[in-house]
Automatic annotation (TrEMBL):
Keyword RNA-binding found: no
Gene3D superfamilies recorded: Hexapeptide repeat proteins
InterPro entries: Hexapep, Hexapeptide_acetyltransf, Trimer_LpxA-like_sf
Entry protein name: Acyltransferase in colanic acid biosynthesis
SUPFAM superfamilies: Trimeric LpxA-like enzymes (SSF51161)
Keywords, in A-Z order: Acyltransferase, Transferase
Highest taxon, organism lineage: Bacteria
Organism name: Emticicia oligotrophica (strain DSM 17448 / CIP 109782 / MTCC 6937 / GPTSA100-15)
Amino acid sequence: MRFVFLYIVIKFISKLPFHTLRVLLIRALGANIGTSVGLYRGFEIRSPMKLHIGNSSIIGHDCILDARKGLNIGSNVNISSQAIIWTLHHDVQSSDFKEVGAPVVIEDYVWICSRAIILPGVKIGKGAVVASGAVVASNVEAYSIVGGIPAKKIGIRSANLDYDLGKNIAPII
């Protein structure tokens, strides 16, 4: 029953008109969210009390953030619209469809493009880019660009990163 109530509350919060208000209310549900974070409309968060988002990160429209096993998102991370991050799923070999999962870690300056999917237990290194539509099932090295299904290294990103994604987001106390 608590899960259903929390789901309805988060759906309501995700429709509110201001980043500041959405962030404050998600914090009230137990999420650890830094300053100057943008949460765009339509997001879904599972287990907000196990979610950590660093400073100046942006979560795009209609993203799913599954923090049931722990989700740590660094600073200056851009998670584009409709990306999905899972920390829990089912064991396909299990006779009783047992749940399995592990925390996901996304380090600073990562860019997860639209409609990418990150699976449980993955660590995405600093400055990495996940291309649109990629399915990431294993760790991604720092400054790598990955794409495809399953995601494979397709390039290298410059390590000279020093931007602040939160500079256009209203400050949050």
